[in-house]
Specification:
By secondary structure, the chain is mostly helical. The longest helix has 23 residues. About 20% of the residues are buried.
């Protein structure tokens, strides 16, 4: 299942990139397309790590790293701790526990909690993060 997500993700990623450029305004499309472009090396990395190590768990850790990077990136680009994207972090343990096990999922979730804590500290210090989410 993990390899099929990596292999069949290529055409989906390309379609999403094309749609992003046509649907979103340029200032939003640049950031979202950049985040989405991280998926391509990750998909290749999942296949290579699985081939080199033979461990689906090691390859799945790359997938969890991608989920973490997307949640952090989208939370930053949509305003920080007050963003609705901050609540997407609940996906990390939901994806992580079945794929990488409880111990590694706890580690990745701990990193996510540290990231949310950093956003909270930044907000309490008055740091304004960019908000590229359209108001409508």
């Amino acid at each position: 299942m993990l390899l099929s997500m990596a292999v069949f993700g290529f055409p989906i990623t390309l379609v999403q990139l094309i749609l992003l450029w046509h649907v979103f305004p340029p200032e939003i499309a640049r950031w979202t397309a950049g985040l989405l472009c991280l998926a391509v090396p990750l998909q290749i990395g999942i296949i290579l790590v699985y081939r080199w190590t033979g461990s689906a768990r090691s390859a799945a850790n790359l997938l969890v790293v991608y989920v973490l990077s997307q949640v952090v990136g989208i939370t930053y680009l949509s305003g920080g701790v007050h963003s609705p994207a901050a609540f997407w972090g609940v996906l990390l343990p939901l994806v992580g526990i079945p794929l990488v096990g409880l111990r590694m999922a706890t580690f990745w979730t701990g990193l996510l909690i540290l990231q949310l804590g950093a956003f909270f500290v930044a907000a309490s210090l008055g740091v304004e993060l960019p908000n590229y989410v359209l108001p409508q």
